[in-house]
Amino acid sequence: MPDELSAKCERLLKEPEIRFAGFLDMMGNLVVGSFRDNVKPLKNEDERKKMFIEAVLRIRTRQDFNDNLGPVSYAAARRKNVVTFTFPLKDNVLFVSAEPIVDIDKTAHKIMNICSIENN
């Protein structure tokens, strides 16, 4: 399974707007993933770990509302320097960061197509 996830990350990182792609376990640990070549991380490793844990907690909290509102396809946050996306999957969370100028919905659907994620 990590090889399959790794291949998906590699495909995502070929897209010029994608800065980082990684799969997190349900504890917020990075299973596989990396930055695109020549991308300077905006956070150090400890800060990224904290961000990953927070992303998984948000996904898990949102799942409490699935019965009423339906499942989350993805969540995105536009910040000054980056746009982050989280995609809840069965056993993992896909975490992607992109350049701040992206069209969020278009980019999310592009990511879902590349990774064969069904729109819930």
Protein described:
This protein is α+β, with helices and mostly antiparallel strands and 120 residues long. The protein has one domain (2-114): Beta-Lactamase. It has helices at 2-13, 45-62, 66-69, 104-114; strands at residues 18-24, 30-35, 75-78, 83-88, 93-98. The longest helix is centred in the middle third of the chain and has 18 residues, at 45-62. The model has no long low-confidence stretch (mean pLDDT 92). InterPro entries: DUF6659.
Order of helical and strand elements: HEEHHEEEH
Give the full name of the CATH homologous superfamily: Dynein light chain 2a, cytoplasmic
Net shape = globular
| Domains (count) | 1
Termini Cα gap: 22 Å
Low-confidence stretches: none
CATH topology: Beta-Lactamase
Number of contiguous helices: 4
Number of strands: 5
- Text of the CATH class: Alpha Beta
Strand order of the largest sheet: 2-1-5-4-3
Q: Major sheet, described briefly?
A: 5 strands, antiparallel
What level of helicity do the residues show? Answer: 25-40%
- Gyration radius (Cα, Å) is 13 Å
Structural class: alpha+beta
Beta-strand percentage? 15-25%
CATH architecture: 2-Layer Sandwich
Mean pLDDT: 92
Pfam families: DUF6659 (PF20364)
